[in-house]
Amino acid sequence: MRLHNLLAWLLVAGALTPAAGMLHAPASAAADQRGNGIGIRLVDAPVQARADSRARRYIVDHLKPGSVIHRRVEIANTTDSPQRVALYPAAGEIRDRTFQFAPGRTANELSTWTSMSRDEVTLAPQAHSMVTATIDVPKNAAPGERYAMIWAEVSGDPPPGGGLREVNRVGVRIYLSVGGGNAPAAGFTIDSLTAQRSADGRQSVLAQVHNTGGRALDLSGELRLTSGGLSAGPYNVETGTTLAPGDTGSVVALLTEQVPDGPWHARIHLVSGLTEGTAAADIRFPSAAGTAEAVAATMEGHLPVAAIGTGAGVSALAAVSFLIVRRRRRSRGERTTG
């Protein structure tokens, strides 16, 4: 079964991507708005991922070597003129704590495993069309997580006499884990919180995050501040940080209002799909532009080692006491019976 995806269109509005004789600009420059360009959305997602918003937006899966999956994507023309749209897979990677798109049709291992049911569609104004992406994992594929993109691209005619040609494209990310058994567990720790003040006086809190699991993370979340009877927030964490397994990076929450320097009890909640965690620390904002010292954060639901050891000791002592009492009762019973 497949879960029908009701996500809104992801649309291109003037994103420039590199090709021969073309101007290069980051693909992330694509605007997310309706009615101005070419749209693409993932239609299929595994039923077991129905609660995972990340798996409904991107192709996120775990496959054994030799497996094949099919995922439908819908392409839309939101302009008032016909559009010829090229469809193709290309390389992706996680670098510098962000998901990076390769130039043009640059290939990697995962993109060579990926094919489209059609290489091109011609769409009438305001029309849409369905295509299928197939991922065929070789039987000898090594375990590990890989990244790629499925692109929908339109390009204009080159100017008379030659020159730069604008290429617009929008895509769906692929996060594919290969290996036997269940998918690797996802997880992270929030190691520290740091209060900052910019030169223009804006305050922010930076959280240092360590990806402790076996899947990539796309982090979002919110920050709340409390101090006595005062409270501030929630403040949204800026999106765009992607951490590969084992990687460490930071996310930042910008305050939308001026608050006193503190001290504040800062509590940050981060989410990546179904994986989430909360941590807290006591911070104080610098009175002038600068960065305060990082403060170690305490994860909620994570007991310190000493506390875990004490709890284990108490449990063991309780178990021993129970056995002693039980044996004494049994001994008294035996003597009475005898």
What does this structure look like?
With 338 residues, the chain is mostly beta strands. It has three domains: 10-178, Immunoglobulin-like (Sandwich); 188-299, Immunoglobulins (Immunoglobulin-like, Sandwich), CATH 2.60.40.10; 304-330. Helices cover 13% and strands 44% of the residues. The model is unreliable at 1-36 and 302-338 (pLDDT under 50).
What's the SSE blueprint?
Layout: E1 10-11, E2 38-42, H1 53-57, E3 59-63, E4 68-77, E5 83-95, E6 98-101, H2 109-113, E7 114-116, E8 120-123, E9 128-136, E10 144-155, E11 167-178, E12 188-197, E13 203-211, E14 217-218, E15 220-227, E16 230-236, E17 242-243, E18 248-254, E19 264-272, E20 275-283, E21 290-291, E22 295-296, E23 298-299, H3 305-337
Parallel strand pairs: 3-11
Antiparallel strand pairs: 1-2, 2-4, 4-9, 5-6, 5-8, 5-10, 7-9, 10-11, 12-13, 12-21, 12-22, 13-18, 14-17, 15-16, 15-19, 19-20, 20-23
